[in-house]
Automatic annotation (TrEMBL):
It holds the Pfam family DOT1. It catalyses: L-lysyl(79)-[histone H3] + 3 S-adenosyl-L-methionine = N(6),N(6),N(6)-trimethyl-L-lysyl(79)-[histone H3] + 3 S-adenosyl-L-homocysteine + 3 H(+). It is an enzyme of class 2 (transferase). The keyword Protein biosynthesis does not apply. Residues 1-152 form the DOT1 domain. One of its GO terms (biological process) is regulation of cell cycle. Keywords: Chromatin regulator. InterPro entries: DOT1_dom, H3-K79_meTrfase, SAM-dependent_MTases_sf. This is Histone-lysine N-methyltransferase, H3 lysine-79 specific. GO terms for molecular function: histone H3K79 trimethyltransferase activity. The keyword Glycoprotein does not apply. It comes from Candidatus Roizmanbacteria bacterium RIFCSPHIGHO2_02_FULL_38_11. Its EC number is 2.1.1.360.
Length: 152
């Protein structure tokens, strides 16, 4: 898909969504703090490069472990050639935001995508990825800058 078109779809979906603020407020309500919950986001330019470098096969299964507001999953859907894309996020507020984005993606964006992309399945799951079976993955992305050693 043309980069400029994909980027403008992505920016319109995420307009007004502040993942940093959602994460910060949600983490204040948790009974514990973890360095691994530190928030950060992919950019369309950076993520496009990552996908190209990964040389992903067509029709594979993509996971984002720690998916935040779902940006990497949505970008992988727009830029990649996956059949199934799954984002797993432990912080409820971020997970709910990704679900809201998906609720708009399906009716507003899917119908204007090429036919093979319309067949993609996208899921967001509120879970600790350490407790989730992602063994059907072909590509695992994780934005792990602040993950502690044991988690890595
Ligand atoms: C740096 S953010 C990346 C967000 C998204 N992947 C992106 O690149 O736009 C890392 C995310 O991982 C989540 N996270 C950390 N440990 C997790 C775990 N064990 N299970 C699920 N999510 C986790 C954090 O809450 C945070 O939202």
């Amino acid at each position: 898909m043309d980069f400029k078109i994909a980027k403008s779809i992505f920016e319109s979906l995420y307009s007004g969504v502040d993942g940093y603020d959602i994460s910060s407020k949600a983490r204040k309500n948790l009974p514990y703090a973890s360095k691994a919950h530190t928030y950060g986001e992919v950019t369309p330019e950076g993520f496009d490069k990552i996908l190209k470098d990964a040389e992903t096969k067509s029709g594979g299964v993509f996971y984002d472990l720690g998916s935040g507001t779902g940006k990497a999953v949505i970008l992988a859907s727009l830029f990649g050639n996956f059949s199934k894309l799954v984002g797993i996020e432990i912080i409820k507020g971020l997970y709910h935001t990704s679900k809201n984005i998906l609720a708009r993606f399906d009716p507003e964006v899917k119908p204007i995508l090429p036919l093979e992309k319309q067949k993609q399945t996208i899921k967001f799951i509120n879970s600790d990825f350490l407790e989730f079976d992602f063994s059907d993955a072909d590509v695992v992305f994780t934005h792990s800058t602040c993950f502690y050693d044991e988690l890595m």
